[in-house]
Specification:
binds dephospho coenzyme A; about 50% helix; binds adenosine-5'-triphosphate; Rossmann fold; alpha/beta; 5 strands; five-stranded parallel sheet
């Protein structure tokens, strides 16, 4: 099997990573999404979920035995200690599973979408890095709307992530998502054409 050409894609909470990756998928590009993988490694029966319950108690479980994500989110973004603990537990599991999915990819290049690509230096496994960018006020507004979350919760998550400047420094390409979805889609389409030329 050829080594897949991996394009890292990142951006802060609510910046539009999913909106961008959905568009790449319309070009039949495989997308490995760290947020999805993060859900897979804590399904019932996994070591991940078992460890979380040991640490935070059964109150982080829903009646059906699955993880109550909203509950865990409250613990995790309230202070640095719980977040550091969860990151230490989950990040190696997430990384291992992402590598398996990348190896199974068969599209001309694959997108590795990771909110914490810069923070966790995952650009080391990528040929190029794409940053989805918009002003922090817009990020906040979109994330609050989507998650029905209060301002402080989203601000705490933003504070736990790299700054806009730090992310932009790591970028080979920037997708400006400060205006419409149509504009974002056009930029993805153009980037897709460029990337295809690089791999051919
Ligand atoms: C705390 C959890 C359960 C909250 O789940 P919830 O469904 O409410 O949110 P979701 O997973 O969709 O994450 C929303 C956004 O929060 C941000 N985020 C998530 N985890 C982290 C983290 N550890 N540090 C900083 N930002 C994070 C990302 O921008 C992400 O896209 C969940 O985020 C989680 O398991 N986080 C730890 C795993 C992780 O680090 N994931 C990030 C990708 S590597
Ligand atoms: N250009 C845009 N115009 C209006 N709404 C947008 C635009 N781009 C994204 N959105 C909306 O903003 C919200 C956040 O976008 P999206 O879920 O793609 O962000 P994300 O970077 O994947 O977020 P997270 O890190 O939280 O997973 C979604 O509800 C999405 O539909």
């Amino acid at each position: 099997m050829n080594t897949p050409y991996v394009i890292g894609l990142t951006g802060g909470i609510g910046s539009g990573k999913s909106a961008a990756t959905e568009r790449f998928k319309t070009h039949n590009i495989d997308v490995v999404d760290a947020d999805e993988v993060a859900r897979d490694v804590v399904t019932p029966g996994t070591l991940g979920l078992h460890s979380i319950v040991q640490r935070f108690g059964k109150s982080v479980l829903l009646d059906d035995g699955t993880l109550d994500r909203a509950q865990l989110r409250k613990h995790v973004f309230a202070g640095p200690e719980a977040k550091a603990w969860l990151n230490k537990l989950l990040h190696p599991l997430i990384r291992e599973r992402m590598l398996e999915l990348i190896a199974a990819s068969s599209s001309p290049y694959c997108i590795l979408s990771v909110p914490l690509l810069v923070e966790n230096k995952l650009y080391e496994m990528c040929s190029k890095v794409v940053v989805v960018d918009c002003e922090e006020d817009i990020q906040l507004k979109r994330a609050m709307q989507r998650d029905s979350s209060d301002k402080q919760t989203i601000k705490n998550i933003m504070a736990a992530q790299a700054s806009r400047e730090e992310r932009l420094k790591a970028a080979d390409y920037v997708l400006d998502n400060s205006t419409t979805l149509t504009s974002l889609h056009q930029q993805v389409d153009e980037l897709h054409t460029k990337l295809l030329m690089q791999v051919s």
